[in-house]
Specification:
Strand order of the largest sheet: 2-1-3-4
Structural class: alpha/beta
Shape: elongated
Number of strands: 4
Strand content: 5-15%
Mean pLDDT: 90
Distance between the termini: 65 Å
Order of helices and strands: EHEHEHEHHHH
Length: 181
């Protein structure tokens, strides 16, 4: 069974052209929604995937209607593969997992996406290391300034408890303990 999926990003956009293309492609059922592709949890997409059976083929007018990134596309294609359903794009004829050539192209895309993720991870790690060497501190800014920390040490040295000192500095006692450690 050919199942259509149509999506536009905003309420004021129209699904007419996608709907017509999917009907012309002989889709027996069409799932439609007006929601940004950036959202992973799209109700109609989830509903469609839940209703797919082995042998069904999801048809989209363009791949960007189904997924906003290569990673999303590959995740959805993997879901469909698990169900033993296919994927076909009307505008990108090479994107057809019902054919050996289409599956090969998707496999190549998966390899490229994995390579890209590894490169991003590598660059991010290198950037973080370089920033640490330059003295950049990551994470939240410290709750206590150097002056407040010096005051805390002085007050504790004068006999005040850490809890009393924390109250004076308007921080939780555990925050003070961490800063002093």
């Amino acid at each position: 069974m050919l199942i259509g999926y149509a999506r536009v990003s905003t309420e004021d956009q129209d699904l007419t052209l996608q709907r017509a293309a999917l009907r012309a492609a002989s889709c027996t059922r069409i799932f439609e929604e007006k929601i940004s592709g950036a959202y992973r949890n799209r109700p109609e997409l989830i509903r469609m995937v839940d209703q797919l059976r082995p042998g069904d083929v999801v048809v989209v007018s363009r791949l960007d209607r189904l997924a906003r990134s290569t990673r999303d596309l590959l995740d959805i294609a993997e879901q469909l593969k698990t169900i033993e359903a296919g994927l076909r794009s009307l505008h990108e004829p090479w994107a057809d997992t019902t054919s050996p050539a289409g599956r090969m192209v998707l496999t190549v895309f998966a390899g490229i996406a994995e390579f890209e993720r590894e490169l991003i991870h590598e660059r991010t790690s290198s950037g973080r290391k370089a920033a640490k060497i330059r003295g950049v501190r990551f994470g939240r800014p410290p709750k206590l300034t150097d002056d407040q920390l010096a005051l805390a040490k002085r007050l504790i040295g004068e006999g005040n408890s850490a809890r009393e000192t924390a109250k004076i500095l308007n921080v939780h006692a555990s925050t003070l303990y961490r800063a002093l450690a």
